[in-house]
Write a structure and sequence with these properties.
alpha/beta; Rossmann fold; seven-stranded mixed beta sheet; 8 helices; 19% strand; globular
């Protein structure tokens, strides 16, 4: 298990209690967490175990059959999403790193979900824009470079069925979004994205303090007009 919580407001003790009282990571997931931790500081990019349990539950409750993920890293989130899909479900994973995703491939095989996952390496926006324009996804997950969040959001939303969900990670950015002294580019981009989707009439929005903050966006019926920018 990770040494501490990704949630800046949780103590290690409370985080441990929280994980223990949800569906815990199984042996394959624990091994993936441990292998990712050995990469060093970059391992912070892996989602929290309680977030993974939430995503598996949510995918199943939604009855999702087709999902897309932007930002796969070492494959923990993909494993969790794929676990919630039915046997004939599919998950399109977009990432640029063969090195990191090759770790995920091994664990997807071990977990028995590799046949559900289509990993495509290359710039995610190119992969998404090359997809057919019609609605083809029930769920999307965005956890990649922060300046491109609006691009990923628009590309997925246009291909999401009505009442489908988009999940966006790192929206609280360890609390920096409300820190007046935080003026780095990533923080600014996250604030701008959060402000934008909060008033987007095409989606219903809920931000929850899970992991490093995750926003749930439900596509409303008849929401294909415009780009939500007001222009």
């Amino acid at each position: 298990m990770p040494d501490g919580p990704k949630s800046a407001w949780l103590s290690p003790e409370l985080h441990g209690y929280l994980v223990a009282h949800g569906t815990p990571p199984d042996d394959v997931q624990r091994e993936l967490i441990a292998e990712t931790a050995r990469l060093g500081g970059v391992s912070i990019m892996q989602i929290a175990p309680e977030q993974g349990a939430f995503m598996t539950l949510l995918v199943g409750a939604l009855g999702a059959e087709r999902a897309v993920e932007v930002g796969t890293f070492t494959g923990y989130s993909a494993l969790c999403i794929a676990r919630g899909l039915p046997a004939d479900g599919s998950l399109l994973c977009c990432d640029v790193s063969d090195e990191w995703t090759s770790i995920g491939r091994r664990f997807w095989d071990a977990a028995g979900v590799a046949d559900k996952i289509d990993l495509r390496l290359g710039p995610a926006i190119d992969t998404l824009n090359a997809l057919p324009e019609e609605e083809c996804f029930d769920l999307g997950f965005i956890d990649a470079d922060k300046p491109s969040y609006p691009l990923y959001f628009e590309a997925i939303l246009s291909r999401l069925r009505p009442n489908g969900l988009i999940l966006v990670d790192n929206v609280l950015w360890s609390g920096a979004v409300v820190d007046p002294g935080a003026s780095d580019e990533n923080t600014k981009h996250i604030r701008e994205f959060n402000d934008r989707v909060a008033c987007d009439p095409r989606v219903e929005t809920a931000m929850i303090p899970l992991g490093d903050g995750i926003t749930l966006l439900r596509k409303l019926s008849g929401s294909d007009e415009g780009d939500g920018s007001g222009s």
